[in-house]
Design goal:
With 357 residues, this protein is of the alpha+beta class. The chain folds into 2 domains: 11-118, 3-layer Sandwich (Rieske Iron-sulfur Protein); 133-305 and 333-356, Naphthalene 1,2-dioxygenase Alpha Subunit, Chain A, domain 1, CATH 3.90.380.10. It has 6 helices and 20 strands. It has helices at residues 155-159, 167-171, 257-284, 300-308, 332-345, 349-356, and strands at 11-16, 26-31, 34-40, 47-51, 66-68, 71-73, 80-82, 87-89, 104-105, 107-110, 113-118, 145-151, 179-186, 189-200, 203-214, 218-224, 229-239, 242-251, 287-288, 321-322. Strands 12-18-17-16-15-14-13 form a 7-stranded antiparallel β-sheet, with helices on one face. The protein binds FE2/S2 (inorganic) cluster and fe (ii) ion.
Length: 357
């Protein structure tokens, strides 16, 4: 039984930070429910994301794919593919195979992150990702701090948090609940403005949280009032029920370098702590098709309507409740994936805690 009615949404998604791969290197990735290869050419160091399974006889290009200039060579029989995914050479034939093509994803390197465009029917990007000025102002803003965590929940279940103000008191134990001042949607964008009271050693201050979202995968969150912080919150679907969160933080510099670093570290830990607190809810929640809401609940239906534009494939609500997957039931089609995430990618609570030490 499916845990969510939704397929993988279309959008721009972060696939790495630039220091994860050097020019001339390739590596396997698994996003959007498919095997992918990410490689960087040795000409300008550009990133290329392509379907990983070689159309010749199925070798995985991310495991041993060799980069030469602007081509990747399959480790099995040496066929080469170019940046557009075309077969450009078969070393033991005079000809190329025009039908042999790797699916190629549009790439954007911006704001210190690398993003790829996913659309189930391979349509071109439908919107752009803006340049975030704080990410190009090293004089006033700190170096970037990063965090990565994989959440066993659908993108939409995680993103619904952006309109959920009531959970702060219960899940995050905050004294006050953030107050929504604005929730606006416009095409793939949303604009959320909230104010939250913080108790600090200097007294109670009004902290502002401004969220600007550009499709399902990319949001800019600006915190001001307490510590001026800009956070790129990037969600990348691994499958339709599992999501990788990547956070990139920048802090407004204080005169004192060490103070900037300490305040920054405390803030990153605070945000990470909130994710740890949200985790058991996300991991175990169901999806309720027609939620029973309080009149003072956030704009859930507006959020869900906004979210629905990112599903190009059919969504059928044939269940009232999409319950979580019982851990005791073995689901063969999922097992390989879970092993893969557990060994190579999943950072669970303990690991995040260890990172925070
Ligand atoms: S499987 Fe890739 S070249 Fe044969
Ligand atoms: Fe939360």
């Amino acid at each position: 039984m499916s845990r969510t009615p939704f397929p993988v949404p279309l959008g721009w998604y972060q696939i790495c930070w630039p220091d994860e791969l050097q020019p001339g290197e390739s590596k396997p990735l698994f996003y959007f429910e498919r095997d992918l290869v990410l490689w960087r050419d040795t000409e300008g160091g550009a990133y290329h994301l392509q379907g990983a399974i070689c159309p010749h006889l199925g070798s995985h290009l991310g495991h041993g794919g060799h980069v030469e200039n602007c081509e990747i060579m399959c480790p099995f029989h040496g066929w080469k593919f170019d940046a557009q995914g075309r077969n450009s050479e078969i070393p033991y034939s005079e000809r190329v195979n025009r039908a042999a093509k790797l699916r190629t994803y549009p790439i954007l390197e911006r704001n210190g992150i690398v993003l790829a465009w996913y659309h189930p029917f391979e349509e071109e990007p439908l919107w752009d990702i803006p340049e975030i000025p704080e990410f190009d102002d090293p004089e006033n803003w700190s170096d970037t701090s990063t965090r990565l965590v994989e959440i066993p929940a659908a993108w939409q279940d995680i993103a619904e948090n952006s309109v959920d103000l009531a959970h702060f008191r219960y899940v995050h134990n905050t004294d006050s609940v953030p107050e929504a001042r604005l929730y606006e949607t416009d095409g793939p964008r949303t604009k959320v403005r909230t104010v939250q009271r913080f108790v600090t050693p200097q007294g109670v201050v009004d902290g502002k949280i401004d969220i600007d979202q550009y499709g399902p995968g990319f949001s800019v969150i600006r915190f001001s009032g307490v510590v001026d912080t800009v956070l790129l919150g990037c969600n990348t679907p691994v499958t339709n029920e599992s999501t990788e969160l990547r956070y990139s933080f920048k802090f407004k510099r204080f005169e004192d370098e060490a103070l900037t670093a300490n305040v920054g570290k405390a803030f990153v830990n605070e945000v990470t702590q909130q994710v740890i607190e949200d985790l058991p809810i996300w991991k175990n929640k169901g999806y309720v098709t027609r939620p029973a809401l309080a009149d003072t609940d956030g704009p859930y239906m507006q959020f869900r309507k906004w979210a629905s534009q990112f599903y190009a494939e059919d969504v059928t609500f044939d269940q009232d409740v999409y319950p979580p997957n019982p851990p005791s039931v073995s689901r063969p089609e999922q097992e390989g994936m879970q092993k893969f995430t557990a060994s190579a990618r999943l950072k669970d609570e303990d690991q995040i805690r260890a990172d925070m030490m």
